């Protein structure tokens, strides 16, 4: 067990060290692929619009949580235009500091800036209509991802949604030594979602991304 615990500590601390060296810019957030931001946001908008609205079974628009928010790229372009209040969580305080200026006037509608790794985050019970988790599940171990998703479920309002948008490998788990993360295949992601007691309401592959990067899939969970 000692080795696993030690390895786990390194897995998290190495990632924290990596992100501390990343510039607080859109290009930094996207690993040099800042040019895909518009395509990404438009795909996410179309995905979310399937669920939001008034009426029976629709997801509300009061409050969203942006997980692994960085400087607030997704909060600014996707969540603040759709939700009354948005909370941001990120492990890097410098990114959250930058978010306060990057978000501009609309940043007044940010409820909370939370500096935490997701493995340690306890989201407020019953607060969120949407919990958006993009390009960050690879920074959690399997067990911590399952636990985090269970805590997220408790943090949802009625008809609330957890959205995961992330890279998907072709087969198995692919470690990335550079930023201390992993990329899982879709079958593994599905099994972890199931272990968390969540079901997949809808799933799509993001289109029009560069050929050389991983496939990106978006899953709506409840």
Describe the structure.
The protein is an alpha/beta fold and about 220 residues long. It is about 35% helix and about 25% strand. It has 7 helices and 9 strands. Strands 3-2-1-4-5-9-8 form a 7-stranded mixed sheet, sandwiched between helices. A two-stranded antiparallel ribbon has the order 6-7. α6 links the parallel β4 and β5. α3 packs across α4 (about 75-80). The protein starts with a helix and ends with a strand. The model has no long low-confidence stretch (mean pLDDT about 95).
Shape: globular
Order of strands in the sheet with the most strands?
Answer: 3-2-1-4-5-9-8
Our measurement of the CA-to-CA distance between the termini, rounded to an integer number of angstroms, reads 33 Å
Question: What structural category do the secondary elements indicate?
Answer: alpha/beta
Strand content: 25-35%
- Output the helix-strand order: HHHEHEHEEHEEEHEE
Helix tally equals 7
Largest sheet: 7 strands, mixed
Low-confidence stretches at least 5 residues in length (pLDDT < 50)? none
SSE blueprint:
Elements: H1 2-20, H2 26-29, H3 37-49, E1 63-67, H4 73-79, E2 85-90, H5 93-102, E3 110-115, E4 128-134, H6 142-154, E5 156-168, E6 173-176, E7 181-184, H7 186-195, E8 200-205, E9 215-221
Parallel strand pairs: 1-2, 1-4, 2-3, 4-5
Antiparallel strand pairs: 5-9, 6-7, 8-9
């Amino acid at each position: 067990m000692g080795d696993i615990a030690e390895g786990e500590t390194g897995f998290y601390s190495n990632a924290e060290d990596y992100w501390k060296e990343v510039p607080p810019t859109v290009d930094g957030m996207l690993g040099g692929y800042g040019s895909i931001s518009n395509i990404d946001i438009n795909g996410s908008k179309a995905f979310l619009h399937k669920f939001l609205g008034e009426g029976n079974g629709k997801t509300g628009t009061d409050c969203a949580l942006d997980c692994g928010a960085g400087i607030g790229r997704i909060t600014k372009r996707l969540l603040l235009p759709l939700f009354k209040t948005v909370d941001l969580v990120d492990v890097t305080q410098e990114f959250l500091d930058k978010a306060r200026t990057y978000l501009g006037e609309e940043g007044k509608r940010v409820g909370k800036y939370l500096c935490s790794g997701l493995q340690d985050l306890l989201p407020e019970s019953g607060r969120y209509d949407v919990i958006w988790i993009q390009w960050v599940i690879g920074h959690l171990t399997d067990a911590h991802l399952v636990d985090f998703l269970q805590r997220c479920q408790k943090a949802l309002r009625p008809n609330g949604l957890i959205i995961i948008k992330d890279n998907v490998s072709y087969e198995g788990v692919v470690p990335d030594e550079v930023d201390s993360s992993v990329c899982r295949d879709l079958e593994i992601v599905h099994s972890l979602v199931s272990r968390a007691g969540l079901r997949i309401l809808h799933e799509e592959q993001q289109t029009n991304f560069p050929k050389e990067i991983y496939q990106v899939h978006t899953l709506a969970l409840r």
